[in-house]
Amino acid sequence: MSTDLSIQTVIEPFIIKSIEPIHMTNRRDREDFLQQAHYNLFQIRARNVLIDLLTDSGTGAMSSEQWAAVMRGDESYAGSESFERLEATVRELFGFKHVIPTHQGRAAERIMFSVMCKQGDVVPNNTHFDTTRANIEIQEAEAVDLVIPEGENPQTIHPFKGNMDVEKLKELIEKTGSEKIPLCMITVTNNSVGGQPVSMENLKAVRAVLDQYSIPLYLDAARFAENAYFIKLREPGYEHKTVQEIVREMMDIADGCTVSAKKDGLVNIGGLLCTNDDALAQKEKDLLILTEGFPTYGGLAGRDLEAMSVGLQEVLDEDYLKYRLAETQYLGERLVKIGFQIIQPPGGHAIYIDAATTLPHIPPSQYPGQTLAVEFYRAGGIRTCEIGSVMFGKPAENSPTEIPSQLELVRLALPRRTYTQSHIDYVIEIARDVFNRKDKLTGFKIIEQSPHLRHFTAKFAPC
Ligand code: F0G
């Protein structure tokens, strides 16, 4: 890591070896694309997007070492060497006994909850990610979010806003009975409250409570390295530890984890399910064979396993992590300077703009988040994601109006190692233009929608 403290600019710690051209569009084109897509950004063709901040999942760039590893892929159905290499990497980094590859995070979740949960069970988490919650609910079990109160307030500053409320956890266990809680999960970083980290102290405190009741702890470790670097930066006693040591300490507190490798695994596809429990691992592998594939490939090609193995090691590079968090912070601070309210402080992988405070003249029933997201696309070809009443609004009984989401957010998620500072500066310029015109923006209504996950396919029309 650079020790020259007089240098302020955090540069991308890589050079560009292979490029993918961006297809340029102008405002008029984009107006047509919006109309054709019925103002739903999921329906816009990717080639018509200039900067794609829809998600940080599977959208990052692989390194030359990962591409080299792809060529070593052993595509044997059983006993592949690529699996052996991945297993060795994960055992060394995370320390778990059983390493089960899956095609992505939600496949690991589905298998784990199918095996561990039954009807009437309760699973606590700091905040469940949507797929985690859905995979619990499909078992007819209940997913309970127990984030600390600071995590629910966008403007409150707290170094570890993703933490679980330990007192609420105790109350939940006492009320529910430990026999109905097959496991507790902690999501690192906590995506749903803004990519906010969880402290080591909190992980230990949660573990101490669970130990009293013999409840296992699993991490949803999609962004394990970003979380570990926040611990290094913010938690007393960790400033001199390596990220690798911190990751291992986090994992040692848990009994296993699920991983979407599409985030900190630095790959475009892949996931992991890890556990120290022999009996559980056997059941999980049996189910894996049924739906994902043989346990030495789990729904992936051998070359995907190789890329994941290298990615999991590369993500621990502290020059990379310093740049990663600096990029997110850079975007967040400049949006605040323009006048936007964002979830504070900036998280690891994304900035979340508060659309309700940006567009106070647009009520939730006219979708302020969708309005802002559409305007970012119209003005600059930037694709973001509404996380508000389009995604979470619910029909109200006996009333034509919906129950709105608690927050109206627009997420700008940063793909890993993909965009340079000038791309981010362009996003900031467009954001300024949108902000200056915000009072003139008008909302949307939904004209067609499906009963489940409507945000992917809903059709909108301007109000
Ligand atoms: N857990 C967390 C915390 C996630 O953020 C995601 C995915 C998953 C699990 C599921 O993993 O996509 O590999 O099946 N988050 C993406 C996002 C989709 O845009 O935040 P997956």
For the largest beta-sheet, the strand count, sense and barrel status come to: 5 strands, mixed
CATH class of the largest domain: Alpha Beta
Order of strands across the widest beta sheet? 2-8-7-6-5
CATH topology call of the largest domain: Aspartate Aminotransferase, domain 2
Tell me about this structure:
The chain has 463 residues and is an alpha/beta fold. The chain folds into two domains: 27-56 and 320-462, Alpha-Beta Complex (Aspartate Aminotransferase, domain 1), CATH 3.90.1150.10; 64-314, Type I PLP-dependent aspartate aminotransferase-like (Major domain) (Aspartate Aminotransferase, domain 2, 3-Layer(aba) Sandwich), CATH 3.40.640. Helices cover 40% and strands 13% of the residues. The strands form six sheets. The chain has a five-stranded mixed sheet with strand order 2-8-7-6-5, sandwiched between helices. A three-stranded antiparallel sheet has the order 9-14-11. A hairpin with a 6-residue loop joins strand 12 (394-395) and strand 13 (402-403). The longest helix is centred in the C-terminal third of the chain and has 21 residues, at 318-338. The protein is globular, with a radius of gyration of 22 Å. The chain binds ligand F0G. Residues 55, 57, 104-106, 129, 131-132, 187, 191, 220, 222, 260, 262, 271 line the site of ligand F0G. Ligand F0G binds at residues 55, 57, 104-106, 129, 131-132, 187, 191, 220, 222, 260, 262, 271.
